[in-house]
Amino acid sequence: MSCGEPHETDCSEVLDHLYEFLDSEMPDVDRVKFKQHFDECSPCLEKYGLEEAVKKLVKRCCGHDDVPIDLRAKVLGRLDLIRSGQPLPEHDVTAARTAEPAPATPES
After folding, report:
1. Contact in structure between 5 and 35 (CB atoms under 8 Å)
2. Does 81 or 25 have the greater pLDDT score?
3. What residue spans carry the Low complexity bias annotation (predicted)?
4. Which of 31, 34, 62, 94 is most deeply buried (CB count within 10 A of its CB)?
5. SS3 content of the chain, % helix, strand, coil (to 5)
């Protein structure tokens, strides 16, 4: 997506890091660049508005549910892998580690 106009911050960079902006997980200097980009680029501003609305809707509808600690740890671990550029495992290694075989029953 691009409006076709040149910007200091490219549209693809803004859209690639949109959730970091929405979640305030980027340095202030980058947030300022993104805000400036949204002022100049209506397609990116529209995408930002849509994603912000979806995020608010999800929070309103699902924000009251407690997240299990193990699920939160698993999601954060996956995010760390993605951010570090490491490949994701093809199967769920967490389930394999936590799954224990059923206890053997003695036969009478």
Report:
1. no
2. 25
3. 95-108
4. 34
5. 60, 0, 40
* Continuous segment of H or E residues that includes residue 97: helix 93-98
Residue 107: CB atoms within 10 Å: 4
Task: Work out the pLDDT band at 98, boundaries 50, 70, 90.
Answer: very low
- Tell me 4's DSSP state: S
> Do the Cβ atoms of 14 and 34 come closer than 8 Å?
yes
Mean pLDDT of 60-73: 82
pLDDT, tens digit (0-9, with 9 covering 90-100), for 30-45: 999 999 999 999 999 9
Are 86 and 80 in contact by the 8 Å Cβ rule? The answer is no
User: What is the residue extent of each domain of the chain?
Assistant: 11-88
Local structure of 84: helix, strand or coil: helix
